[in-house]
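#struct-help
A.M.: can someone run this one for me? Single chain, 258 residues.
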Amino acid sequence: MKIIALKTDEFRLYYRLIEELKKRNVSFISLTKEEPIPCKVGVLITTPSRGTGMDFHRKITVETEEDIPRAVDRALEILRGRMRIKYLIIGVDPGKSPGVAVMGDGELINQYKCYSPGEVSGIIEKVFSTYQAENKKVKVGHQAVTIRNRIINDLIELVKKFDFIIEIADETSTTHSKHDPDINAAIVISSMPGVPVDRPIDINPTQGEIKDIQRISRMKSGSLMTISRALAARVAVGELDLVEAIELQKRDGISENS
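D.P.: on it. Structure tokens below:
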């Protein structure tokens, strides 16, 4: 199997590339200036200073740290270019900071940690735009029901564009490790059996979720105020983020019981 090679004297970018590749569990080798490129190398990642004059047919040039994730995406895509992915399965661990694991024919090819549930659909759209596959599926863990349903409803809007299946997977048996628990749970969820979903789901936040959002709003405002239950419910279903809700509470002076 072909692998990725790194060849650069830009030390900051070099170590960031190594971090990104290790995070994704991608095999690679590092080459010095004098070393020839072995035949087992399928893609070379380099930088402008090192890449000039380097005659290799599959070369990706990285100029900034921000280029690195996309460069690795492209490298993996090139490696798989002659071998179309048969099964592309994305596992999603729902929660306040969802984890997303991208599995290609049973192999972890990418992973993401989201800062909010609203980021998940954008990441999955990026994945489906990057990787070509015969069969595509997104499995969302069954817990954190309100967030789960928000994510599913966002994904349903992408189905016509990318033709994939959405499933709710039973994550009861998943164990959250201390290192990247959301990512590891997402990997496990990707292998769990699921129930297909083909239409939007009603989102009905629980009283416990609403109270928790109110509690967090009080902390965020320095104990100066607590947003109303109505605003907390809008945060829960994704209509507002917490900062917007706090600003509305300040501006309108909405009653605590509204």
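A.M.: thanks! The chain has three domains: 3-79, 85-197, 207-252.
D.P.: also worth noting: The two ends are 62 Å apart (CA to CA).
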